[in-house]
Specification:
Elements: E1 5-10, H1 17-22, E2 29-45, E3 53-73, H2 76-84
């Protein structure tokens, strides 16, 4: 079975290639990208330290977010979801 690749928009610390390697996520392509109509907000609260916030993306039609578009294996999305607390 051939595994498919998908594009993953990275922002914050996931823009760092070393961070992605630490998470055992490789990429075959990497390029700058912009998402319009969204903005970066630090509104995700840490479970261990309630004074610590994490980056999140929220709708705002007047803003934009700069990031990196990586082409990754589809199975690596689960790895990223687990470390980002998306599951």
């Amino acid at each position: 079975m051939i595994e498919h690749k998908v594009y993953y928009f990275a922002y914050g610390s996931n823009m760092n290639p070393e961070r992605m390697m630490e998470r055992n996520v490789g990429f075959s392509q990497r390029r700058r990208a912009i998402l319009k109509g969204l903005r970066l907000k630090f509104n995700k609260v840490s479970e261990g330290n309630h004074k610590e916030g994490f980056a999140n993306i929220v709708h705002d039609r007047n803003e934009l977010i700069e990031g990196v578009l990586n082409k990754i294996m589809k199975s690596d999305l689960l790895k990223l979801d687990l470390v980002e607390g998306s599951l």
